[in-house]
Amino acid sequence: RKEVEQDPGPFNVPEGATVAFNCTYSNSASQSFFWYRQDCRKEPKLLMSVYSSGNEDGRFTAQLNRASQYISLLIRDSKLSDSATYLCVVTLNDYKLSFGAGTTVTVRA
Amino acid sequence: NAGVTQTPKFRILKIGQSMTLQCTQDMNHNYMYWYRQDPGMGLKLIYYSVGAGITDKGEVPNGYNVSRSTTEDFPLRLELAAPSQTSVYFCASTDGTGMTEAFFGQGTRLTVV
């Protein structure tokens, strides 16, 4: 079983729509959780950290469910500029970063 | 503040050739990593380093070597290039706490023909 699994999509949504997707992780000892954004095979960049209580950053909401071992990302009022691949990243300890394969989101006009 | 700088951005190698991908960071991060990303796949860890003079293998180390003589630099060496090493390579660094973001270089697109 992969350490981090994501629905690859693609999620094809109209502007203004809400889109949500999950990421599951296999190791219950995982410590930290992040969503990164990657555009057109460029370098990944941090979108947001995911906290136990859930957190929002503008139109983006991240949730963590430790019992079921998944994290989620919800994007409200989608913009064309939100089109990207979203990578789920889980850290097991202080150095090991495990990446999901990414979820592709395409927002159409 | 340059962050993580990788060179070159693109390279075409012939089978059997060697090359070094350069990576340097100016954030005084102890932890540095090399990943490869194949089309439609996630990032796979090749090698990592937790400090100068210390390196260790990741998931896919075969065909690669690294060194870490300084905190700033973490070069990746391909000794005998093979078509299977055609990929996009990313260098990254973190402060090692596991709580803060990883910073990535812009990537190197390598094609082995």
Radius of gyration of chain A: 13 Å
Low-confidence stretches of chain B: none
Please state the CA-atom Rg of chain B, rounded to the nearest Å. 13 Å
The helix-strand sequence of chain B is EEEEEEEEEEE
What separation lies between the terminal Cα atoms of chain B? 36 Å
User: How widely separated are the two ends of chain A?
Assistant: 38 Å
Report the average pLDDT across residues of chain B. Answer: 93
Uncertain stretches of chain A? none
Strand residues, percent of chain A = over 45%
Global shape of chain B: globular
Major beta-sheet overview of chain A: 6 strands, mixed
Describe this structure in words.
- The complex is a heterodimer of chains A (109) and B (113).
- The termini of chain A are far apart.
- In chain A, strands 2, 4, 5, 9, 10 and 11 form a 6-stranded mixed beta sheet that branches. A 5-stranded antiparallel beta sheet of chain A has the order 1-3-8-7-6, with no helix packed on it.
- In chain A, strand 9 (84-91) and strand 10 form a beta hairpin.
- Helix content of chain A is 0%, strand content 54%.
- Chain A has 109 residues and is mainly β.
- Chain B has 113 residues and is mainly beta.
- In chain B, the strands form 2 sheets. In chain B, strands 2, 4, 5, 6, 9, 10 and 11 form a 7-stranded mixed beta sheet that branches.
- Chain B is globular and about 40 Å long.
- The mean pLDDT of chain B is 93.
- Chains A and B meet through strand 5 and strand 9 of A and strand 4, strand 5 and strand 9 of B.
